[in-house]
Amino acid sequence: MNLAENPFAKDISGRAAPHAVSPRGNDPRLYSAAWERAGHRVSQGLRPEPRDLIESPARPLRSLAFLMSVLGLGTVLGIGSAALIVERERPFATTSIGPWSASPTAGTAEADPYSVAIYTRSARVPLALGEGLALTAYTDSVGQSLSPACTYRITGSTPTARMWTLSAATAKGEMVETLAGRTFLTSLGLLRADDGTFTVTASRAPSSGNWLPLARQPQALEGLSFTFRLYDAPVTTGASLEGAVMPRIEKVACR
User: What is the pTM of this model?
Assistant: First the structure.
């Protein structure tokens, strides 16, 4: 028989021990109070049960402040990350061929929201699915970022197309002032080798052959990009680009 079951149990001092409360299955604080009423002294405080901590009254102001902090941090991170992606000016869901990348869904209803925001912010209109495909390069063929202060040689061939244009712009797609007054050249009248390949020299100074003018004052510009726009071309989807060949980009010199 334990302490709770024997109403006549006494402790070693001869005083009656509490018998209405058992430490098993009851609140320890009730046990302490009953023990003191019986004349005993509680030498140390009782450690609260885990359920007492869980069932303790909530602090509404602290909880509200914590909730508002989490919501505020989430809002800042969400808006900040979206702004960085849009500012980057490079759509998602791209297909790459060497340094050239294309976004086949940019001008369709399947375009992702970030791509739509990027083109809307820059006031650019992507080519529709039936019009053609644009492929842009931000690095040369060895992976180094393009610089408007350098001269590049673009050599090779493009996928079959009725015609194409090759343009130079900043890394954000902005047109620049050039010595020739233009920033592009077209496949019409292009000088080609016997095997159909071509070589384009992209530089600030005039060059013989196929010349793509670059910015006259590159110091204040933010990067460089080249864009091929293939019009009326069979390759208008990511799947059809598999196995396609695009020109190489080789850095010649910088000054």
Answer: 0.61
Please give the distance of CA 239 from its chain centroid, rounded to a whole number.
Answer: 24
**CB–CB of 91/121 below 8 Å?**
no
- Encoding tokens for residue 84? 């960085």
Distance separating alpha carbons of residues 161 and 142, to the nearest angstrom: 26
Does an H or E element contain 65, and which?
Answer: helix 60-88
**Locate tokens 């209803």: which residue?**
109
Asked if residues 167 and 229 have their Cβ atoms less than 8 Å apart, the reply is: yes
Distance separating alpha carbons of residues 105 and 127, to the nearest angstrom:
10
Report how many helices (DSSP H) and strands (DSSP E) the chain contains, helices first.
4, 10
Q: What is the pLDDT of residues 104-119, one digit of tens each?
A: 766 566 666 666 666 6
Count of other CB atoms within 10 angstroms of residue 38: 14
Domains in the chain: ranges and CATH: 1-56 (no CATH), 89-254 (2.60.120.600)
Query: How far apart are the C-alpha atoms of 137 and 99, rounded to whole Å?
Result: 5
- Residues 246 and 226: their CA atoms lie apart, in Å, by 12
